[in-house]
Amino acid sequence: MSTTYTIDSSTSRATPVSAPMKRLTVPAVKRRKAEIADGRGEPLVMLTAYTVRTAQLLDPHCDLLLVGDSLGQVVYGLPSTVPVTLDMMAAHGAAVVRGSFHAVVVIDMPFGSYEASPAQAFESAAFLLKQTGAAAVKMEGGAAMAPTVAFLSERGIPVMGHVGLTPQAVNMLGGYGARGRSEAEAAKIVGDARAVAEAGAFAVVVEGVVEPIAIEITRAIDCPTIGIGASAQCDGQVLVAEDMLGLFERTPRFVKRFDDLAARIGDAAGRYAAEVRGRAFPGPEQTYAPRA
Predict the structure, then answer these.
(1) Between 20 and 30 A from 91 (CA), which of 77, 134, 164, 291?
(2) What total number of domains does the chain contain?
(3) What burial class does residue 118 get, using C-beta atoms within 10 Å of its C-beta: 0-12 exposed, 13-18 middle, 19+ buried?
(4) Catalytic residue among 207, 211, 216, 285, which?
């Protein structure tokens, strides 16, 4: 059970409203694999969210909300996800949980918070779940991280895996190009997905790979695959919401823009500026007259 958060129109602040709702669960997400296979289930829908209001708007349409470490670039203007901290993830994760009532909220484990040992990963994951109320964490990495996935899963922390293009390893990969173009790399990515799924991951993000790899992984593992720059044959899809909404001029090849909010926000700001400079705003409707 959780509590929804709405916007109090008289104050423009997020104000808690007592409206308990039953949230989707990690086991329900994992079961979707079999439901899709026998025609009873639809692909999983996942988007990123970093704020209360964004979570409120996206939650009714999503099965999962990802508090991605992409907030480093999207919110903070950092050059990559590498500088993102646990405290940053905790603050935004708590906001998204407060703003949602339906979706499973998953929080990225930032670079440096889990790679050293399973014990370090458990401490970081426990901190994030305690601070936010989220349901699960996501970790990048394949076979090398499988023991950590198992360690967390055995201790009650649901883990979403992430293979293929792993942005936290951008310095090792040398960029954000599609992965799996060589036979050796393709085999490694499929092996990575198998390893984290067998270790107990409840779902696996497959990012930035040539399509046959995504299809092979989806057929090979018994938990849902969530594609991003992968294949429509994955068990679900995820995008950075700001990319999908058209808030940035440049987006990756695999993004489809479903709106052009950047242009619409610019137009609205331009109209506002013109009315301020022309003293048309504020008008009688936005000002207070003396009491008679």
Answers:
(1) 164
(2) 1
(3) middle
(4) 207
